[in-house]
Amino acid sequence: MMQITTHHFRHAFGYHMLRAGCAIRSIQAFLGHQRLNSTGVYTKVDKQALRNILDRHHPRSGHT
User: Is-above-0.90 flag for pTM?
Assistant: First the structure.
């Protein structure tokens, strides 16, 4: 069983705030990061979300 830590909650907070459209500088301030590089880990692409966007919007996807 995986142990959940405060780090997991911080990471989930940053990730979900970014996905909801929150500015990366605001997330940096919320989390108290000195350097933007520390906050940058939340900008990694969610591969499934990218796949869903491509499936919805690609001209050959079959969706109208």
Answer: no
Cα gap 58→18, rounded to integer Å: 24
Report pLDDT for 51: 79
Kindly report, residue by residue over 6-19, the tens digit of the pLDDT.
888 888 898 889 88
**Residue from 54, 55, 44, 13 nearest 31 by CA:** 13
Please give the residue range of the domain that contains residue 28.
Answer: 7-57
Centre a 10 Å sphere on the Cβ of residue 23 and count the other Cβ atoms it contains: 10
- In a domain, residue 2? The reply is no
CB 61 within 8 A of CB 55: yes
Please provide residue 38's backbone torsions phi and psi, each rounded to the nearest 5 degrees: -65, -35
